[in-house]
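Technical note accompanying the year-one report. For the benefit of new consortium partners, we illustrate the data format agreed upon in the data management plan: each record pairs a sequence with a structure-token string. No post-processing was applied to the example shown here.
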Amino acid sequence: MLVNLGNEYLNVIINTKGAEVTSIKNDQNIEYIWQADSNFWGRHAPILFPIVGRLKNDKYEYNGQIYSMGQHGFAREMEFEIVKKTNDSVTMQLKSNAATLKMYPFDFTLKINYLLSDSELKINLSVTNDGKNEMLFSIGAHPAFNVPLGNLAEKNYDEYYINVSPNKIYKQIPFKAPYIDLRNAYDINLYKPLQLKHEIFYDDAKIIKIDDNKVMCRLGNQNFNHGVEVKANNPEYAGLWSANNASFVCLEPWWGVADDINADGILSHKNGIKHLLSEQTFNTDYSIRIF
């Protein structure tokens, strides 16, 4: 089911399947969200849970038992329940069930809250451990934005840039697709904006280690004051990605990461895994601002 949110600045559509944002339009009817052309990538902005990225061989071990789970987990494929809805906000939740327990042996409640505030969509991610044992999980967001953004004057992909703030030297973690290679992380200079060219994504995503409480990724056009900002609180990683020669870019805050090429497959050893005690709740948030 599609849920509509609106105010005088933005109109937003969210699908209860995956609690996925499928459209963000401004008051000039410009569409900011990638419209899921399956010739390139058939999604808009999936929620990643209870893992981010790929497991080695799509399997992991927990308490001596082997489980199978696909890339980015199962939340993006599941129907969420609407808990509360107003004109400018909605809360959706997914609870563990027989299907999830076959892949992931933890009882949980995952809540996603969307709230419009002027030209900003604020998103809160909440994970509660409903079981008696410690829960292991990761979570992330994967919003994709049109490039160009829809204004015919802004038609050239290579006029766009990504600015990561704070501006500094970050560690970039290379891909040996579909896994990461932590041992060979290297410096990436992001004091200056990253100029978009399709070929920078030919080797898959750019994964940046984040060591700051807040990070902002700004997608802008060097000739127009028009774009998108994604801000996140306490993410461990940021992913920048596009499919080959596609007209979109993903700005992704992650509280987790794909398996390393040297991972042993034991879930508690996984890089970026979070530990949540019984009845505890993990909260984090990010936002999408249109300018």
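Partners are asked to follow this layout when depositing records. The two ends are 29 Å apart (CA to CA).
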